[in-house]
Amino acid sequence: MSPLRTKIPSPQALFAFAAAADALNFSRAAEELNVTQSSISHSIRSLEQHLGTQLFIRANRGVMLTGHGKHLFKAVSGSFATIETAIDELQRRELSFITIAASTSMATNWLMPLFHEFQNVHQGIKLKILTIDRNVEPDDSIDLTIRLLPIGTERKNAWLMARETVFPVCSRLYLEDAAPLEKIDDLPNHKLLSYEDPYRQRINWPEFFAAFGENPRSIEPAAIFNDYQLVLHSAMAGEGIAIGWTLTCKFLLEQSLLCRPLQAEVTTQQGFFVLGQPGKSLRKDSKLLVDWLLKQSSELR
Predict the structure, then answer these.
(1) Can 95-150+273-300 and 164-269 be said to share one CATH topology?
(2) SS3 sequence, the chain?
(3) CATH code for 95-150+273-300?
(4) What ranges do the domains of the chain cover?
(5) pLDDT at 223 (0 to 100)
(6) What are phi and psi of 192, to 5 degrees?
(7) What Gene3D superfamilies does the record point to (predicted)?
(8) Domain 4-93 falls in which CATH fold?
(9) Are 231 and 242 in contact (CB under 8 A)?
(10) Which residues pair with 62 in a beta bridge?
(11) What is the pLDDT of residue 282?
C-alpha cells in the first residue's frame, strides 16, 4: 500500500482541505461535505499539525491559501480529478451493459440464439450474460434474471414469459434402434435420462408419470445428471430420452437436434418469469430487452 496513508492524519482531512481550499471558506466547505464548520476546522488543524506547516491564513472574512497550501491544493485537486474520471469511466462501462442471469441451459439454448437478432435491432445496447446454478434475485449488479415461479406470482417488475410445459425428447438416432414407443406406457422400456437439481426443484420422471396416472415407482433411470445441459447433450447424442422444457428445447426441436417421440405433455402451475428489482424502475435499455423477450416468447404463454 502507498505510504501516503502515514503522511496524512486521515483521508477525510484531504477532503476537508480540498473543499476549503476550493471555496476559501470553511462554512461553505462544511455545507458541501455535509459536516459542521468545527469539523472542517479540526480536520484542517490536524492536517497542518501532521505536515508541520500552515496551509491557510485565517482572516475575518474568510481564508487564504499559503504558498504551501497552494502547492498541496494543486496536487490534491489534480489527483481527485483523475480518480473521479476513472470512476466515471467504470460506471459508464457498467451502465452500458444490461446484465441478465439465467441457468446454463436457458442461456445456451434459448437466450443465445435470440440475442444476435436483438443486437441487430438494438445495436447500441450491449448484453452481459451470467450463468447461474441456483436462483438469484436481481440487484445492483444484475439487471434481470429468468426464474421458474408459481404462475400466480404477483410482484413489481415480474413478467411471465412462458408456462412450464414439459414433454419427452430424444434424438432420431436413438429411435432408430429403440423399442416401440407409441404411448406413455412404453416409456419405462426405454433409457430414461434423469435430471436432479440440488438447488432448484424441477419436474422429473416420477412427477411426469404421475400426471398421467401411472405408477412412478417402476421408473428406473438409465443415467442421472445434476446439470440440465448435460441431460440435453446426452439426449442429442442418442443416449436416451429426457424431459424437455418448451423454452430450452424450442430451437433444438426446430433444428431437428431433438424430436418429440410422443405428443404427451404436462403443463404445471409454474412459469418462467423475467424479473427486475422489485423496488426500482427499469432502465430504458432493460425495459426494451424485457419487451423483446416477452414478444419472442408470446406463443409459449
Answers:
(1) yes
(2) CCCHHHHCCCHHHHHHHHHHHHHCCHHHHHHHHCCCHHHHHHHHHHHHHHHCCCCEEEECCEEEECHHHHHHHHHHHHHHHHHHHHHHHHHHHHHCEEEEEEEHHHHHHHHHHHHHHHHHHCCCCEEEEEEECCCCCCCCCCCEEEEEEECCCCCCCEEEEEEEEEEEEECHHHHHHCCCCCCHHHHHHCCEEEECCCCCCCCCHHHHHHHCCCCHHHCCCCEEECCHHHHHHHHHCCCCEEEEEHHHHHHHHHCCCCECCCCCCEEEEEEEEEECCCCCCCCHHHHHHHHHHHHHCHHHC
(3) 3.40.190.10
(4) 4-93, 95-150+273-300, 164-269
(5) 96
(6) -100, 130
(7) Periplasmic binding protein-like II (3.40.190.10), Winged helix-like DNA-binding domain superfamily/Winged helix DNA-binding domain (1.10.10.10)
(8) Arc Repressor Mutant, subunit A (1.10.10)
(9) yes
(10) 59
(11) 86
C-alpha 35 chain-centroid distance = 37
Using a cut of 0.85, tell me whether the model's pTM lies above it: no
CATH of domain 164-269: 3.40.190.10
Cβ atoms of 129 and 250 closer than 8 Å = no
The x, y and z cell numbers of residue 63, run together, are 481564508
Alpha-carbon distances of 126 from 99, 120, 249, rounded to whole Å? 9, 11, 25
Closest CA to 204 of 189, 221, 187, 191: 221
